[in-house]
């Protein structure tokens, strides 16, 4: 029976350490201040933005939410980003994803000053990630690495299969795991025989948004299972993994909720503090 990787407990513990870092900054007259731009009324995004607001308050950060209507024009958001980039009192900026159809999210991300890019999703910061010269990392991959480290699960020499090649999770996570000398395969919707890959994997990360995609038959005994999925099935939040069956074969497994999600939020808070410190040290 696998050990549950308790992301919620770890996020709470890391938040206590972060509070101390924020106190140190405040003693220097600096209060980290970041902005979340949320366009439209995606119900999940609204929950995530408010979770962040609660967490930010808990560790002592200032978070502004720019809630924009669904029919907002691209130029309006670009102008807002330009304004926040130029504002010396703002340390971090992020655009909550997904954005409505008429919005070109890539263009918005490109516009964010890489020094204020708390999400680590600007082309400059993604490039730095692959060059192993990064100062900020996307939040979910950073949270997964923190979770593995906390439970002393090594990556060096391990065969990892990441299911899902998104810019937010799959691709940056592959870069961070490669940096730690894992052998990484990214599978996606066009991958021919997914089970053949996952059956050989020491670590499986699923980030597809497809409930029950990863079944017990696809997992080798003792594998580590990281579930990034958030799916609503019959009014219940579940991941991509058939949790009850897979946990019997896994050595470690994340639950949904309470696994990777809370660490995504915590990692974002860490990024705000890290960038605030970096900006002030460079003055
Ligand atoms: N610009 C970004 N957009 C999105 C990101 C991101 O990292 N940057 N990630 C996700 C959403 N997300 C953060 O923004 C996020 C996901 C999950 C959670 C979370 O705490 N989940 C809970 C369950 C919450 C629930 O009940 O629905 C858990 O897993 O325990 C927080 C934030 C997409 N967009």
UniProtKB/TrEMBL annotation:
Q: What does it catalyze?
A: (6R)-5,10-methenyltetrahydrofolate + H2O = (6R)-10-formyltetrahydrofolate + H(+); (6R)-5,10-methylene-5,6,7,8-tetrahydrofolate + NADP(+) = (6R)-5,10-methenyltetrahydrofolate + NADPH
A Pfam family that this protein carries is THF_DHG_CYH
What Enzyme Commission number(s) apply to this enzyme?
Answer: 1.5.1.5, 3.5.4.9
Residues binding NADP(+), per UniProt:
164-166
Q: Does the keyword NADP apply?
A: yes
Q: In which pathway does it act?
A: One-carbon metabolism; tetrahydrofolate interconversion
Q: Which CDD domains match?
A: NAD_bind_m-THF_DH_Cyclohyd
User: What are the record keywords, sorted?
Assistant: Amino-acid biosynthesis, Histidine biosynthesis, Hydrolase, Methionine biosynthesis, Multifunctional enzyme, NADP, One-carbon metabolism, Oxidoreductase, Purine biosynthesis
List the GO terms this entry assigns under cellular component, sorted alphabetically. cytosol
Give the range the annotation lists for the signal sequence: none
Describe its partners and assembly state.
Answer: Homodimer.
Give the family from UniProt. Answer: Belongs to the tetrahydrofolate dehydrogenase/cyclohydrolase family.
Q: What is the name attached to this protein's record?
A: Bifunctional protein FolD
**Protein source organism:** Lactobacillus kefiranofaciens
Give the encoding gene's name. folD
